[in-house]
Amino acid sequence: MRKDAVHNRERLLRAARSLFADRGLDVPLEEIARTAGVSIGTLYNRFPTRQALVEAVFEDRTATVARLAEEALTADDAWEGFVAFLTGVCELQAADLGYNDVAVRGAGGDPAGGYSLMRRIVDRAHASGQLRADVTLEDMAFVTWGIAATVRATFRVAPGAWRRHLALTLDGLRASSASQTRPLPAPPLTREQTALLMPECG
Question: I need a labelling partner for 12 at 20 to 30 A (CA). Which of 68, 123, 133, 139 fits?
């Protein structure tokens, strides 16, 4: 790309990153272009779709999640690795409403192999006997959705409230919390059902 094209791309990414972080992914593209000081045509020349812009803005977060997953898989204690991974992802969500939206919308997909990495983390926690046996990988979508809703509701008033929500959730996921006399009242979602529930980024 020419120097001016590179410069415009960087300005668009900075503007989008800031606006997404403060308000979420539904910020009008025209506002992003205006904040970056370029025309909407320039935005579309660099990023033909909103999805292309979102992927470029959060490319570094995808890499961070992959790193968190690898660290979880090499942790000495499988449960601690599981907890550290969920906590790390939730911290990314809590710091950025845009990424909070990305996490919700991608919970049923497999960006950068995230689904397969999460499966390995869940399988490892199951094998250690610390994650309740009736928890499925698809149940992790409920964790993402729940924390995302808490982040969205408390972002400006009580930004740390999600940590209490996550702690309560983790207690419910522990094998020591499971009861053979009180099975879960509904079957888990299938992967296909979970994917169908994911909205598109637009």
Answer: 68
